[in-house]
């Protein structure tokens, strides 16, 4: 593949996503080429897992080290909090960032979401560059959603603030634990299910385990998966319609993730279970088979468990599904597949859902 | 005046500003007419000075009281804090506001800025309606700036999030203490200085004290003053150029306000001193008289003191002027007047400024 640069048109500006091995070590020159190397200061935010692996490489790329400040947050979802937000804001002010400064998010979705929200609200908004280091973060690098959690709900505080540039070094994924590969790969598969069956067969062909993936394959995988999300988001940035398709597998997935206790199952592991269920439910709903077993067998081979954990209470899951929605209307919506690549947002009956979840759904 | 509705074109949407006596008591029907009365919930944020005066009137206008929640913050600038932000966010979540809910800011600039920032970041942004109850808030109702303070600086955390509607009831200003009239009126006069001398002469003619202003005069005053700000902001929402003119009187004003200790001098009282200085400095800079004495005499009649408080250290003021800027470049910029109505942003020499501040500036 030659085309390693994708462009995302957000309502605010168009920005490039560069997927390129070794790009991390030329971070500064990429910024110079595609963004604002004239920034008054650079503020790199990362976590304490990523810092020892990649922070030096990133900082080394800058010619004037005096202009670079760094902030290392504790690894994990708990850092997406108002108290961490306040700490990072304070550091940004102490480091005398101004409106012409640039924030750089070096890490996974947690770093990206927090650092992006800092950028969105520092002096009413300054630009930021996203440097994703997880597979899952290919998802968060498109769409402009940034934010933090509140004890009463995930991602409840936030903004739309697209990055001005995304620099994705697939080599950085090499240090990712298997569990994190699996978490991110579920979103890759999701993009196949909702938009492009040929992508699923390509994945089956190219990725037989999370070890020894070639840089070429990984680069292509990232680009193809990102393209699906770009296409959806560009058509519906404001989440009025088809952007909902990205929730395929997520309605039940979120409920399972929450019910297990966040951190027990990764996001992707829970979404994988949600996708299998959504396909099964779709088959009932539309009355025809989707021939998806081959993909689910493939996922099992990659280590996914696709069953709802047996200790989970179905009523609790349904309760969570109803709570989870950011709209408090009492209807339950599910993304179903008419066929692979053709999603629909469907309002489903609670009893039908319950029957299907308990395995008692008729045809 | 017939035209009591102004429209502001922001980059996000166009919104109406309605200036109309008694509009507070028809708050809901105004929302119905101009905004989203179908909102899932209404969340009115106000302060504990305004609440006993106007909260009941506002709530009474809603046909379904169940859909209305209220939150009362302590009066004063200290409420523009991250900890108050967190409290109001928590209340919004507890009240089950969703993406279709509407926030209503009932109060002065403090309430407007805080409530607007809540709206900007609640579930990545929901609409809000501004119901200004101070004269100064006619300024904050245009421009879309919302935010809170950080111990290291005022308004350092925030966003651009224009309201979807502004409902201004001039009658509510009747309970405003004289000090707050004077604070807001300085911005009114500023709008005359930077854009429209005929407005200054009109003010001189119509407003001889802050008592007994007729509703007609007050309505016209608000509309004319708001129009000036609208014209500037529409041309330069992003603060790249002429929006700086709105800082006329503010460079020194902010420094004086800060040096006095926030709350000692009102914003407008400090800005008034800053304007007088900026005019005097302009006359030196451009080498001709601006014939502004009549306006400054008028201001003195209204109770403004236009001298830099004698106990203030000029070096400290200059230090603050240099710190205050959101850009940390070391240059000092001042808005000067070539003539009344013709502002220019000028880079000034620190020594020149100092000489003028100490009253030793030659011609
Ligand atoms: N903004 C969006 O649109 C969007 C989309 C999806 C997910 N998210 C958010 O993203 C978060 C999850 O993302 P995530 O899975 O990347 O989480 P994460 O940032 O916590 O990363 C997962 C783990 O991998 C570690 N890690 C990161 N890069 C590494 C590397 N190269 N080598 C070794 N370890 C590495 C991290 O330290 C962490 O322990 C959630 O908070 C979710 O809400 C946001
Ligand atoms: N966002 C912007 O563009 C913008 C522009 C200018 C100022 N501001 C902000 O606005 C704030 C100052 O605004 P303000 O002067 O309105 O402050 P404020 O909201 O504190 O109001 C001033 C005082 O008047 C009281 N009050 C309000 N309405 C009243 C009424 N009708 N009757 C009696 N008392 C009443 C308040 O309780 C308060 O004590 C500052 O925080 C400043 O940063 C923002």
From TrEMBL, chains A, B:
Residues that hold Zn(2+) according to the record: 187, 250, 267
Amino acids binding NAD(+): 109-113, 133-134, 145, 154
Higher taxonomy: Bacteria, Bacillati, Bacillota, Bacilli, Bacillales
Annotated transmembrane regions: 102-123
Organism name: Evansella alkalicola
HAMAP family: DHQ_synthase
Residue span, 3-dehydroquinate synthase N-terminal domain: 71-182
Pfam families in the record: DHQ_synthase, DHQS_C
Cofactor note text: Binds 1 divalent metal cation per subunit. Can use either Co(2+) or Zn(2+).
Function, as annotated: Catalyzes the conversion of 3-deoxy-D-arabino-heptulosonate 7-phosphate (DAHP) to dehydroquinate (DHQ).
The organism's place on the tree of life at top rank: Bacteria
Protein name: 3-dehydroquinate synthase
């Amino acid at each position: 593949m030659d085309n390693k640069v994708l462009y995302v048109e957000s309502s605010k500006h168009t920005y490039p996503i560069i997927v390129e091995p070794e790009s991390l070590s030329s971070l500064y020159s990429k910024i110079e080429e595609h963004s604002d190397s004239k920034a008054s200061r650079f503020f790199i935010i990362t976590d304490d897992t990523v810092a020892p692996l990649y922070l030096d490489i990133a900082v080394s790329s800058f010619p004037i080290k005096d202009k670079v400040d760094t902030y290392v947050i504790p690894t994990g979802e708990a850092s997406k909090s108002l108290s961490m937000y306040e700490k990072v804001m304070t550091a940004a002010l102490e480091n005398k960032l101004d409106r012409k400064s640039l924030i750089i998010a070096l890490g996974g979705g947690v770093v990206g979401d927090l650092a992006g929200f800092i950028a969105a609200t520092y002096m009413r908004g300054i630009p930021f560059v996203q440097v994703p280091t997880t597979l899952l973060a290919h998802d968060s690098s498109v769409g402009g959603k940034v934010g933090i959690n509140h004890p009463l709900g995930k991602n409840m505080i936030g903004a739309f603030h697209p990055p001005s540039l995304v620099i994705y070094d697939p080599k950085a994924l090499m240090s990712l634990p298997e569990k994190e590969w699996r978490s991110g790969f579920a979103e890759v598969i999701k993009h196949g299910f909702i938009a492009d069956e040929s992508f699923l067969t390509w994945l089956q062909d190219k990725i037989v385990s999370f070890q020894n993936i070639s840089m070429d394959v990984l680069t292509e995988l990232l680009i193809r998966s990102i393209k699906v999300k770009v296409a959806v988001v560009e058509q519906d940035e404001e989440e009025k319609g088809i952007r909902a398709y990205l929730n395929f597998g997520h309605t039940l997935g979120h409920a399972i993730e929450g019910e297990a206790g966040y951190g027990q199952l990764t996001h992707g592991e829970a979404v994988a279970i949600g996708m299998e269920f959504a396909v099964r439910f779709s088959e009932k709903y539309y009355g025809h088979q989707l021939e998806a077993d081959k993909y689910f067998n493939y996922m099992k081979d990659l280590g996914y468990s696709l069953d709802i954990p047996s200790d989970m209470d179905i009523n609790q899951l349904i309760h969570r599904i109803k709570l989870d929605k950011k709209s408090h209307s009492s209807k339950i919506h599910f993304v179903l597949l008419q066929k692979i690549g053709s999603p629909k947002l469907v309002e489903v009956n609670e009893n039908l859902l319950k029957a299907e979840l308990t395995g008692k759904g008729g045809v």
